[in-house]
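Subject: sequence -> structure tokens, single chain

Hey, anyone have a minute? Need the predicted structure for the following. Not urgent.
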Amino acid sequence: MTKTVDVIVVGAGVSGLKAAQELVEAGRSVVVLEANNRVGGRTKRTQVGDYIGDLGGQWVGKGQDVLLAEAKRFGITTYLQYDTGKNLLQMFGKLVSYTGNVPRVSPLALIEIALLQRRWEREMKTVPAGAPWNAPRAQEWDAITLESWILKNVRTKAAREFARLPVRSALAAEAQQVSYLWFLDVLRAAGGLEYLIGAKDGGQEAKFKGGMQQIPQRMADALGDRVVLQAPVEKIVQDSNGVRVTTLKGEFAGRFIIVATPPTAASRIQYEPHLPAMRDGLQQRMPAGTITKVIVTYSTAFWRAAGWSGQVATDDDTLGVVLDDTRDTGPAALLCFIEGRRAVEMSALGKDARKEKVIASLVRFFGPEAAHPLGYEDNDWLTEPYIHGYVGHMAPGVMTRFGPALREPCGRIHWAGTETAIEFMGYIEGGLRSGVRAAREVIARHNE
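Reply:
Had a minute. Here:
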């Protein structure tokens, strides 16, 4: 039996669920096909003893109006990211403390960091929203990596390391992997460097009580049996009349389809007829960032008592970033991130070995009390089925050659996902906005 609807949505992450929500409100019949046995995509709930947390995306910041509206609709409130006290920076093997957004480094490095931020802010403003390949210096900037740009334009060692941190901490990639043009577009989409990496007034300002993953879960609950789990899409066939999809749960037919998955997952689907060369080439060239997110719980927030904020950034440690996630009730907790090349190395070692190295790093940062956690959990996103990482990135040459295919429909196939977002790309907010855009594209084609 083939189930027939107006629109098929592939992927029950926030972008796919939001697209389905918009379509249902417009009176369209919808089915959402999810490969996994859960909804939420790059959000993921876990429980460590009495602590309920997120192993995927979890922060919300000012300006993320679609996400905040979804939370309000379900009565979900926020709490601020804790950032009181001294922060820690481990750079060149040395651990130093500081307050504010900029670490204590040499006066020359501080000057370079200030000039660096000012230049990035100036150059990102020349990148057109939705069409970065049309920037005046697009060909030049897309011909080099962020690392090449840093080596050419930044002189002090400390400022160079600072310049490498944003792409690793926010996007789980290395500066050697990403196009400078793509990086500038990420900055533009976030509204600047301070928003990208900051807590207060930034993208990491607040979290949701009860966790982020409850939002897509509540969205899916509202859609009811329109959401079909454990139905990985194997093949999409389209012609002038509609689309037909083959899954492990049977066949589905519709007039249009929205593929709301990361590019890597979309590339594993068979398409008939074959996708246009631009779109196919793009999907082959947008790997996901590599990351493992870790939650470590303790009986008390001993770092707070010692005057630490719990915030750590490093240039070359098992852990790239650490943040406090202690709530008013329940155990104290630290969120830890293994990023970039370190995530690849640690993925091969297994969970027990990761735990040993994570705890060793926390002891180095906060002292011997860190050696005695109540609980430990991590999620190696490299081994997560169908997703594999946080956000897809572009190497040099991809944006200017294949970028125009990012949101361009292929016949009756439309595209969503945070990678396609014009604003807040890489954020959950970007995923939601992309779902709205894709749904409206389909709704506008009601006569076809």
